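Suppose you are handed only these lines of text.
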Amino acid sequence: MRVAIATLGCKVNQYDSAVIRARLAARGIEHAEFDASADAYVINTCTVTDRADVESLRLARRARRLNPNARIVMTGCLAQANPARLASAAEVDAVVGLGRADDLDRAIIDGGGERVMVSNLRKVRPPIEISAVTPAGRTRAFLKLQEGCDQFCSFCIVPTSRGPSRSVEPRQVMAAIDGLAARGFKEVVLAGVHLGGYGKDLSPATSLEALLEMIAERSPIRRIRLSSLDPEELTDSIISRLAGSDAFCPHLHLPLQAGEDRTLSRMRRRYDTGFYRARVQRVLEAIPDAAIGADLIVGFPGETDDDFKRYFSFVEGLPLAYFHVFPYSVRAGTTAAKLDGRVAPAEIRQRAQALRELGEKKRCAFARRFSDVKLRVLLEERAADGRLTGLSRNYLRVAVDGTDELRNHEVEFQASHVEGATLAGEVVGWPTARAAGGL
Ligand code: SF4
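From them, the structure of the protein bound to iron/sulfur cluster can be written out as follows.
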């Protein structure tokens, strides 16, 4: 049997698709590309914008054309949030919500179960499955240890689509890291939908800080990254913990979402710009070479020209290493969908473009800062131009000439020049992971 999987949306969905694929592979089921003929097609849907819904149904139609007899199974956030919409499409055979792994496997493999299998996640709270995603050719693994969210930011459908915050027990996290080390992985990214919520749901309750303490003491892998952490959850003690151990990479992703206080309040974020700036400063006092990244939404309802000017100059003044810009797009079912003051799409595009240009300048400026510093780089794969590429501990992309033996090793790297935001240079040494300090 051959199964093709299409994934829409964010990294969490990509993670979930990789878990589905690994589960099917363990049963001897082959993976097929989505543009090939397969016995079943799984579409892991996204519902972050109304456009993503349309795309999910378009993929279902495409799968049906590729093999009129195939089973077409919809899962993911849209399947969870609006199963009726998907079930009304004639080409869809089954709609399986989140947290129903066994039902999903059955629907894919033998078409068993009901046509719609969706639980109310805010009542059922299914446990989350820990499983590492290990992209081919990469030496970095992603470990999802938290799912769902209890915050209800006004633009976000995640608390509805993915349910309340649930965490993996610390001992399971440690066992998973041990397993990845045994398989030769050199770096682990701790991932979650809302990582700051980690541990509060467990009994006894624990916290991200306690988990980080355990990792600092016991992890055999000494390149641990946090995927993303909301600024109000980045406490002084977490910063000290990150700064005080060689287990952690000097890299933090702190979603800002808007650089203007009225907008932040309408977004129901739990900080203002002053607080955010102070957090960034605190991180850089403790870890001066840290890369700090952010997510930015642009064109949120009610964002005026003046608001955007303030937003832009706030971000311009922040010592960020990079940021991702997301044009605001309406999501039915969220509080923001009911807000007045929609910004015209052309205006949103212009504002997004202005911020992206600023982001590119910041990325290049951050890379230039390290053009004469030795960096510890994990070399991962060969780029299209034949050079080896990898990431420094502080999230800089580097490129070197070298043999394949260097892959999957953390080496000491010295840049010779900067190409945009990439550092090009040579390998100058092999640090021993535990002993080497610095970047
Ligand atoms: S913290 Fe806000 S933006 Fe992040 S998942 Fe929760 S509701 Fe969505």
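What can we learn from it? Residues 149, 151-153, 156, 158-159, 193-194, 230 surround iron/sulfur cluster (CB under 6 Å). Confidence is low (pLDDT under 50) at residues 433-437.
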